[in-house]
Design goal:
By secondary structure, chain A is α/β, with parallel strands linked by helices. The first copy, chain A, has 15 helices and 18 strands. In chain A, the strands form three sheets. In chain A, strands 5-10-8-9-7-6-11 form a seven-stranded mixed beta sheet, with no helix packed on it. The radius of gyration of chain A is 30 Å and the shape is elongated. Chains A and B meet through helix 2, helix 3, helix 4, helix 8 and helix 9 of A and helix 2, helix 3, helix 4, helix 8 and helix 9 of B.
Chain lengths: 411, 411, 411, 411
């Protein structure tokens, strides 16, 4: 680490989460830090303050990190003047330009502090001097830069102030929510695969929780391959997903339903499929009798894996293995919770929430759904160890099978 | 075709879309039909009626198709009695049972019509006779079937009536919307690949329209491979996606941003990246000078492909090639519309709607987004030839590259 | 009706839904029609054709309606030349200009048909003549109109062709889905109020189905007022909404939870609330003993209204009245289905789908939720009579109480 | 404050945000605190620890707060034994029962610590003693409580451990995001009204930013009333919302569009409306000439209020006042930023993000949209002072007009 600088920050640091973000920033920029002094208010409403020495690999990184920290209200201790350089082209800021925030900002020039007029985000700072020697500093958008303008560079000699929390509507949703459907999903698939491999290496069981969207999204071939290859030890699900899987196995997708679920058509199929399995006495019985010959439930039965199906008020039938009493169903799920090393939840909110309540917090759990609301709903139940991935369940399973099942060929 | 039956339907057939659904149903069940008679009302408010002979591969399929058609209010002409069979087990309906709708239903027994009491969906119909010979027919849920009950089988001798449109809230959203994030997405990927291959075989150009979500979702490696392999002739986009792609190319994803975009960090990167390219005079210039060495924009420039970037009010900079005047930008897009054989839109609403307006309806276009609202918004502009796929853009591109680029290896 | 014109259309009319849209268009433009001739293909794959006389209140409306119908491929029978007018200002099209579609279009001039080059949406058509007398017709965007250009006006002399369904990805989601969070919601509130008034006037019962979102969205005061004023006869719900309502009644919203639910806090409240009610033996018992003194469940008990609570796998407790066996729960709901005149479902998918299956199709039902996915999900169960409103449940209830409860004052 | 207890917590306190949540909890339960000791690690990877004295209004509140804090890994310093009480009824836990988390938990009994077997959320803890005097403590769901069981009450003598961050998928979305479409929205409306009143009292200007959804959702009557009553000083918008407002004003909603927008119909209306205004030279000119007589834009012009319209690539026309050059448009917006005291953004993402960049962080801003993605997107631009409300824009405006405009009657 070559470059370092000491900074200070004052405010309701822990309370507002600022300090935690400052440390995140330092890591993101590849830096390190030492907390030199930390003065925490004793009473609930006292502000606290910290003095932190920040290090970065080189001077340029340090300057950019310091600019970044200023967006959090973290300022340099040293009171040097700001650096200033002349723009040599219209419409282009000089290298190392100070990129503005929309916070109240002061710039030190010739030993004096100047307030920046009209703070605006993502601009440069231009220093203007009148004939009479009056200075002012204002923001300039990149496209309004003119050759010859005096532009502030680096983070030295600049102070910003973070306003307190906005008084109006203060309890409403903050914008900080991290909602991202926008993730490099292939990386996440590999992390899930690694988690499952680790769990298996540790001799732990893999728990899956699934909803009907898994079948609708075309995930059955990948799921079946994963079951056969030993990546599913227990499945928690409802009547709907099992009935839909079995209906597809019994009646086959028509050319149309191959790409268009034809919900209503499939619905009638489901009712008949459930009746057929009831006639066979059980799903396991239907497999044994050769009535049910493919699909996810068939794979679970033939591989000798466990499944717990619990009913809900919307069920048709239901299938014979379904626990129609939900308290009994919870007990059956509870009995399978032992030795779980990893839990993957796909395309279900109801069963995911139910499982999240039963599972010890020490078990890593991942919830995959295309609907962000489903993924975030688990927060309501305090299952704080969970992680959510907003993506397409069908394509996710496809990629996961490519990762985990050696000879998996797509559909 | 072995089995056939003549049915009739009366109502505002074309108006309500019923007839079109009936024909869909027949196709879904593998059947065929001949319209024997079609009496269309001459005035706007006259009902019309049709007599149709329906055929199916075998008697069982025909019976199930006829039951299906009844959900549309299509009844058999013949006035035979309904078939009745005795349930031989508790909780299981006999094979071929008539699966109910929640429509008003009548059953013909001994030459008389009986109204079904309490119509309910997905039940069986049980025929009960009192000691005095009074008959009644009622719905029975599967789980309430008792051995010995007399259950209706097949579709003969049953009539249903479809109610008129509900008077209240009649203009609100119908439930018929086909909203499905739930599709076998791997099939859709292949259809898109086929469409693009066909377009190339026809000597037509491939147009892509992209938003920043493409980069956030980790789609750049796949996109770059597709550009290099010749699957992108023209790209329409805004400043944001190009700036984000270039910022990633210039500053690289840190270990953290590899899996967590770190929006704000990336944001500061974007502003500097735009300034750097402005300094180089253009994206093409930055590639020539060796400043920009990877990413989607780099691939387009080195492959000599076309791109049109049009500005928007939220832009930083913008990049030099960006048309800041939107009317000029539309003209530039219009100049690239010729000879397009296929158009793929990803993770953008603004540019998708703009392109949809410019593109002749004869060009197949597909819009991919994880947000259903974006996909359906194109309807507002009447671009009726488009198709939407609600899925994860990153995984979709990954699969598409696996389909189209011979030696593509995942990231 | 002053103005009329005869048009023709050929294609898979019923099949593709075109005819039904044509009739919708005519109504939207305040017109009327007579079907002069309708030739329906007898075999499944035959095209059909129709000749329709269209009427509109005046010539201008008629011309605009005819232009509209052309977007459906409906052309005028008469083969007159197109009208042409000179633009008298830059950037402005003449009144009555023909607004283009992006369909293949021909224009008749001097008895000859000219193909429009580069069809594009929402443009005008400019007629250009070379010195040698060659004519061409092309689209011109509004901003590119120059004074003196010859612009087509009216719909006469114009023919468009609708392409067949796009071959690629043909089974994917069509863009026609009508999704709309964007509705004049105050109008919908009044329609629901009217439907409920009509049902009460008819001596029918009002059925409500509710999920926990009703409480989270602050709907309890409005709901309580509606119960007291007699607008709720039966409530179907799960354990969660009742527990949440009771927890709020017992422990009160803290100043914070007033605007921020504090899910986890509320969650611990819910567990204790359920335990308290179990201690009292029942909700009704807790009301009688003075333990429970406010809220929705309290209002239902004191007003002597019915409620059916059915369990689900995620329940805590559950409350004593909850049917833990879902098949028993379905039976209990079924027993309350009689004489329902109107059904309103709010903020629940699970109980809405369950109720939709039980309810005869003749009962008007409206489903209100802020999540479009919930509203459209009912389609999967074929409950075709339902209507959906995508809006905020709390504000919807507030407005509904203002409509229906004479002295309702906002909380 | 009557009751107090000293607790301790160790870990990466600031880093993980735990401490900030602990303080939130204390406030939510109406308590207060003094930080007795705070030992912050000096190096980046050192854990820190804190000793905090917590106070609550009474002993019962304190016990419940302490149980709450344990979900964060905050344990009591004092090492008393846990309290134990006998359940006197089946299925009901004793008052004051300890409600479990799913964290690893230990209970102190007779001076010894016992690990809780199978940690599960929302259960009680039962103490069991074998004949040989061996003790074990396990979780018991409420419904499995049997009379005579020995149940733990209160928070004394209990220790929980919070696991470190889950190693797998650690960068994926955390479940902590607070998304919530589920808010007591009427309270939020009042807070916005208060913010706007305060701003007006301070002599500041009110800035609105609007998208087309405002018109679709039926918000024009409320918006018009708010403009007339002086609650809008400046409007930032695009071509689409102004064109839609003007089209509705010029052509009026037909009975159908009153409740169903008829997007395509309205779309053709929009193109003609834009052309008409272009013919009049400007929106202001059209108002002056009596061409435009109602709606939001009319109200702004007649009230002499400011508006800045900036173009986008999808625009038709556009309207004469629209800045087609987006950089010029940004300059025009920038020129109106002075003296803004409150900013309300409705149904627009593009213009909200653009405005968020220009606005100083000291201006309170609220973003209202039915789509959670739009609301959270502002986070990408670091506009940290903003607040989001996920609700129906039409009903929100209706309520806001009822709050702010004395004689406002609903449409």
């Amino acid at each position: 680490m070559g470059a370092r600088e000491t900074v200070e920050v004052t405010g309701h640091l822990m309370d507002s989460g600022i300090l935690s973000r400052v440390l995140d920033d330092i890591r993101e920029y590849g830096g390190d830090f030492v907390i030199e002094e930390f003065d925490v208010g004793h009473e609930a409403h006292d502000p606290s303050s910290a003095r932190i020495t920040v290090e970065a690999p080189d001077e340029e990184s340090l300057q950019r990190l310091l600019m970044r920290l200023q967006t959090r209200g973290v300022n340099q201790l040293s009171h040097d003047d700001a650096g200033v350089t002349t723009a040599d082209r219209d419409g282009v800021l000089p290298d190392g330009f100070y990129a503005t925030t929309n916070l109240d900002t002061r710039v030190r020039l010739g030993g004096r502090w100047y307030d920046v007029q009209n703070p605006e985000m993502d601009c440069g700072l231009v220093v203007e001097e009148s004939g009479s020697g009056d200075r002012r500093v204002r923001t300039v958008p990149m496209s309004d830069v003119a050759r010859g303008m005096r532009i502030v560079v680096g983070a030295a000699g600049i102070q910003v102030s973070v306003p307190g929390p906005a008084p109006a509507v203060e309890a409403a949703m903050s914008f900080d929510a991290d909602h991202g459907p926008e993730r490099p999903q292939t990386v996440l698939v590999r992390q899930v695969a690694d988690g499952m491999r680790q769990s298996r290496k540790d001799g732990k069981r893999l728990l899956w929780v699934a909803g009907p969207g898994l079948v609708h999204a075309g995930g059955v071939p990948a799921m079946t391959a994963l079951v056969r290859a030993g990546w599913v030890d227990v499945l928690f699900a409802g009547n709907a997903v099992a009935a839909l899987d079995i209906a597809t196995a019994l009646y086959g997708p028509t050319p149309e339903t191959d790409t268009r679920p034809g919900h209503e058509h499939g619905h009638e199929h489901r009712v008949r499929a459930v009746n057929t399995i009831r006639g066979a006495g059980s799903i396991a019985g239907a497999v044994r009798d050769g009535v049910l010959r493919s699909g996810m439930m068939h794979a679970l039965v033939t591989a000798g894996k466990r499944f717990v199906l619990v009913g809900s008020v919307r069920d048709d039938g239901p299938l014979p293995e379904v626990h129609t009493d939900v308290v009994e169903g919870q007990r059956a799920m509870r009995a399978e919770i032992h030795d779980i090393g990893y839990c993957l939840m796909m395309a279900t909110q109801l069963y995911a929430v139910a499982t999240g309540s039963l599972l010890p917090a020490s078990v890593p759990l991942v919830c995959v759904d295309i609907n962000p609301a489903t993924v975030t709903r688990l927060a309501d139940r305090g299952t704080g160890q969970g992680r959510g991935i907003v993506t397409d369940v069908g394509l996710f399973l496809e990629q996961l099978a490519l990762e985990l099942v050696a000879d998996y060929r797509r559909g």
